[in-house]
Amino acid sequence: MITQRFSCILKETYWFVTTQYHIDQIGFWATEERLRTTDFHEALELQQKLPGSTLTYIDALFLDRCVTCGYSPYERTRYFKSWDDLVVVLQGYPGWCTTSEQLVFCPYDRPSKEE
To answer: What pTM was estimated for this model as a whole?
Structure first.
């Protein structure tokens, strides 16, 4: 049985204000996140002040922290807009694993294959 003390999913509506800008040397458009908030009115106010910005939302954020100890492979916990993005990033860190139940484990708390 796995003891889960830290959640790696924040289930709440998050609003994002993003802007796009053209990178001349490379020749493509880049997107910059300007705001992440749960307050719709705050996001809408900023979006109206930034010409060409986009307001989007998602229903959950995924964190790259271990569900047992709370540690992250980075200096601080990072947030991902999709579980698949989180899985791809953590594959680059030896010992870190994710499960089909949307759990994250560090190398020290990784469950054995028997569990």
So the answer is: 0.72
